[in-house]
Specification:
118 residues; mainly beta; Pnp Oxidase, Chain A; seven-stranded antiparallel β-sheet; 14% helix; globular
């Protein structure tokens, strides 16, 4: 299976989980093991999964489009499933108007099959 096919399958799985009230946030570390960064997951018609980061955030300069990070996706409550997924950082777009003005939207593109944790 090609990486793009795998990523498409994983995105569909995560998107479906989000539609079912499943995944609502993501967590990752850039300098292991801390600090941990947590973000709410968003989706739109043009982007199946993205996070919103304030332009003045300390984490923003550390994120590079194309980088692959281990990310943990979480459900809405403590009893929900969580999934560890290698995720590629997609385009980082500085929003100049609209709902996210003053923030950057960052697409998240899973690159492997998630591993289930309880």
């Amino acid at each position: 299976m090609l990486a793009t096919e795998m990523a498409t399958s994983t995105v569909k799985t995560i998107k479906k989980a989000m539609e079912w009230g499943g995944f609502c946030s993501v967590e990752f570390a850039l300098d292991n093991p801390h600090p941990l960064y947590q973000f709410k997951l968003w989706r739109s018609e043009s982007s199946p999964m993205f996070v919103v980061v304030k332009e003045s955030s300390d984490v923003l300069p550390k994120l590079k489009a194309g980088s692959i990070l281990d990310m943990t996706y979480y459900g809405r409550d403590a009893n929900s499933l969580k999934k560890q997924v290698k995720t590629r950082i997609g385009p980082i777009i500085s929003e100049r108007e609209g709902r996210f003005q003053g923030y950057c939207t960052i697409d998240l593109l899973p690159v492997d099959q998630p591993t289930l944790h309880h």
